[in-house]
Amino acid sequence: MLTRFPAWPLIVDYVDKDRELTAEDKEGIQLALQHPDRVRRIGLWVPNSHLRNLVVAIDGEFPVLEHLLIGLQTKHDMRMGGLTLRDTFQAPHLRHLVFIHFPFLVAFPSLTTSVGLVTLSLNFVPRLFPYHVLRQLSSIPCLETLEITLLFHISVHDFEIEMQQWPISVFRRVTLPNLRRFVFKGSTAYLETLLPWMATPLLERLQITFFSQLTFSVPRLLQYMSTANNLNFSSAEFSFSNGGVAVSGYPREGVSVPVFHMHILCGRFDWQVSSVAQIFDTLSPVLSAVVVLTLDNREHTSSPQHRSKTGATHWRDLLRSFNNVRTLRVHGGLVGSLSHVLRWSGQSPLELLPELKELVCPTGGHAGDALTAFINARKVVGHPVRLVHVDSPDSLPAGTGKSRRSYRSILSAMAMRRRT
Fold this sequence. Notes:
By secondary structure, the protein is an alpha/beta fold. The chain has twelve helices and 17 strands.
């Protein structure tokens, strides 16, 4: 077929990790790779025993190659020796590159000729010091989307040891002049070590996923966000679920794509509240523009009694970070927790949410009764709050942190991605 049909562009798409690679499949892939002048996309996420031979076949110049995805089937096989792209591999028009479960920089020499990359996704073990990662990326001036996913935890102590091995004079801030979207998944330690050396003047979207931790310290994230011109948001949404808590920030109501998104992987509800309280207590200086706050809890299976007993101190710390909120929307499952916090004995009615004008919660149950004391107290001090009932929990905005996507869709998604 390859010799008889016209020289149409070729797409090698084999990213179904649940499918067994047959001899016929392998032969077909290798035949396609023998026509590098026609290959436009390559996606290889195959059993590890076959991957090395297929990667070796990616050799020479691929003048029209735009998308390349290479992945080990599991993160436990990253010790495979000899897995690297050949030095003779050239892809001058490569635009989108994805490495999955890879020892970092295993194929990086090829990037020196791929200065036109706009999307780079790295899924790797954090053995390399974050600054050295940025130095490798500094040779890609057109980069618009950077995704960094760490596969394991790494401690702050490990980075302190690494820092001591280098004189401070070797470190220079690395500017990624065209980066619009930065996605990070890993520990706070890695991100906090990375951000001081990273300048992204045109950043428009920041997406962060943190592993579960007992304590969170993000002062450098605050500094990074404070200098970003396009990450301001006036509407924030917290969505609690069984898998974690997601926080999304929107520049204004009605916008479907958040400029800021954070997901904390933690199952227990009380830990979720504690985590976001710690993080957003630090980030409070960049939250002054938030006037609409939504607390959503539709997907959490913990009992209402358990949620209402979650530490009031953590809730107060979280709400204190949003001093300019005018409208608060609360899912029915959180009304008990909120009412307990707002009517905390001994506190001023204006200590929390002093600018609040409107409180929205579902109709029915004891939602109104639970909040009566707070509503009356605010009225007495001359700062009334209007209580608005909606017909059902579904009337509240849906969470934005629940979507899932498979690696099989990455290449096609990259092709369709546009700046937002």
